[in-house]
């Protein structure tokens, strides 16, 4: 695997995880890897500068035969979801985690109430 293909795969992973990174929903190791990648990758820096959803000119340099290239991933995300829809999805994720937390806390409280 050459360096350009490796960088493309890393960019795809970075961009897939970026929304969770912004919401602080990634592990510390992942966060550190993402920060290192961003420091080294001009294409991802430009991608974030442009809003984190649109293609950049640098992505056109990737080989067309790469099946899961950043170019393909970005076009799917940017064409199928608007910013408002992404915001709604993020809000729904937060509400889901809040609900899970509340159910867990309630379960613990009930367990203590029954057994003590």
UniProtKB/TrEMBL annotation:
Bias type Low complexity, positions: 67-76
Keywords associated with the record: Membrane, Transmembrane, Transmembrane helix
Superkingdom of the source species: Bacteria
Region (Disordered), start-end ranges: 53-76
Membrane-spanning residues: 95-115
Protein name: Anti-sigma-YlaC factor YlaD
Organism: Caldalkalibacillus uzonensis
């Amino acid at each position: 695997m050459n360096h350009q293909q490796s960088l493309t795969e890393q960019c795809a992973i970075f961009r897939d995880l970026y929304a969770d990174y912004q919401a602080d929903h990634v592990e510390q190791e992942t966060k550190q890897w993402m920060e290192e990648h961003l420091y080294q990758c001009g294409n991802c820096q430009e991608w974030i500068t442009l809003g984190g959803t649109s293609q950049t000119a640098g992505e056109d340099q990737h080989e067309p035969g790469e099946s899961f290239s950043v170019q393909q991933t970005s076009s799917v995300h940017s064409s199928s979801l608007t910013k408002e829809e992404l915001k709604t999805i993020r809000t729904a994720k937060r509400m889901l985690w809040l609900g899970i937390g509340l159910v867990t806390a309630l379960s613990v409280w009930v367990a203590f109430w029954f057994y003590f």
